[in-house]
Amino acid sequence: MQRKILSEIHGFKVLNSRINLGFHFVTGRRTLTLRVEEEDDPVYADVPKPCRTKSERKPYPTPMKVLIRRAKEEREARKAQPCRMLEEPPDNGLLVPQLVELAHRVYRARESVLFGISKLVPVIRVQRCGHCFEIHIGYVGHEIRTCTGPKSGFRCATHVWQNGGVQDVIYFPNCFHLYDRVGKPRIGHDERHSVQRIPAIVELCIQAGLDLEKYPVKRRTKPVYCIEGRIVDFESETEYCKSQLEINSGTKNEQVAVQEDGKDLRELSIVTLNSWFEMRSGVMKIMEKYSVQTCGYCPEVQVGPKGHKVRMCKASKHQSRNGLHAWQEATVDDVVGPNYVWHVRDLHRPALDNNLKRYYGKAPAVVELCVQGGAPVPDQYKSMMRVNVVPPDRDEVDLVA
């Protein structure tokens, strides 16, 4: 409505832009201000916004009303049938058969992504800010003032760039490894030093059927029972040991052999990008059956039906929770973070200018690294990366703004 009024007053069409425009009309002693906010522009809705404030909680993937209704239905079913055998995997302790092979593919795709990034980083420079978590892929760090680190106000929010590595391009948060995700789904505070912590995506694959010798896990052959809300396992230890011997004899250890040394830079970038999409899509499918929890205020995640009880949260309002995490349903971005970076059209051109940031796009760091290595721009990221937008030169800023 504001755009329409503004166009009728001046007789011209207002173009879509992210810039905030303020117009003042003085009539006597009153001033009428019309402002066009960048958040109202649907053209730039797909560009990731800056990080939320530390005191703000993550949005719930499932509405709270739906969660409350599910809890009531589960409570009523438990009252109607106090002792019942759980039939649906993986809640009953059994594996979901159609997800076992997918878990192996996701694990192999993760190894392929890590190998490809390790080969691309020495060729395409990766830089990270020494005061915040932002990174940049290119030979010259950008000049966009988005630093939120310590004393960023004294630097006018400019970044201080340093050399980065593989761990800056992609990050997999760790979680506690569960030996029995159904029988003992929670790790207590006193067990925090005795239980291994592994990448959450690896733990998700293990719970979905991946067998790794370093991380043992209990595999059942019979479903468990639920008696008044508590899980009871009637499978004898002899039957369990026998089933474990059959599994170990019939299943070889997962060994990922990645051989990409003979491929050129462009082909390696394409393979890495395809593995990235395969990994994320596989994680999304597994998370539809195997639940993953995340803290509503910090990046901590825990694969399993419940979150752990380790008092290690240092985010906002942790004093009222005695250091416990505020667990909620996780998303794929909590397990495999995209880590968005600014898209650079040409690595040999001058650094990205702060006054032209509304013309620049963004992309996940892995996607940007592979595109700079020669991979084609994926269709789902063309709009976000602003491939069809031609940014003006620095001396043309005043003409277009």
UniProtKB/TrEMBL annotation:
Q: Where is the APO domain?
A: 128-214, 294-379
Q: What is the originating organism of this protein? A: Camellia sinensis (Tea plant)
Q: Which Pfam families match?
A: APO_RNA-bind (PF05634)
**What would be an example GO MF term here?**
RNA binding
Instruction: Tell me the domain of life.
Output: Eukaryota
Which named protein is this? APO domain-containing protein
